[in-house]
Inverse folding.
């Protein structure tokens, strides 16, 4: 498995069957501080999780051991991790090595239901497009491609 860079527009969108490595660099008066996070999707394989951990360790070694490493589990992310994504976090079904395919974000022939949670850090999770997915008190978005219904 090889890490693949993501386009900026994909930041904050995570596929449940994948693992991600996120590096955050903050400039300070004394230089920089670095944080390496590896995010683990709830449907990711042990191989993917192990590969992400190894890549983070290798990147940390390459950077001289300066970064602090964090493991982030889907739906249990740290406040620091959530703060990197000002527009919130979106969980999507599927993943690279799974039987699912990544959904193109500008496709018009999609049908999906997103469950929104949170107040300060919004998280949107793709759920089954079924009446059983709904409940009282939460917000859901029905994405039909060219039409989005709340």
């Amino acid at each position: 498995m090889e890490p693949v860079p993501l386009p900026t527009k994909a930041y904050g969108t995570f596929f449940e069957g994948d693992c991600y490595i996120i590096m955050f660099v903050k400039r300070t008066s004394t230089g920089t501080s670095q944080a390496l996070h590896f995010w683990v999707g709830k449907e990711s394989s042990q191989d993917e999780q192990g590969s992400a951990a190894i890549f983070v360790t290798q990147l940390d070694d390459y950077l001289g051991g300066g970064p602090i490493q964090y493991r982030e589990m889907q739906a249990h992310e740290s406040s620091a991790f959530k703060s990197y994504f000002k527009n919130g976090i979106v969980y999507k079904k599927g993943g690279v090595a799974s039987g699912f395919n990544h959904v193109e974000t500008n496709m018009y022939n999609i049908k999906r239901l997103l469950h929104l949670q949170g107040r300060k850090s919004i998280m949107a999770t793709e759920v089954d497009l079924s009446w059983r997915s709904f409940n009282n008190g939460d917000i859901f978005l029905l994405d039909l491609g060219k039409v989005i219904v709340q």
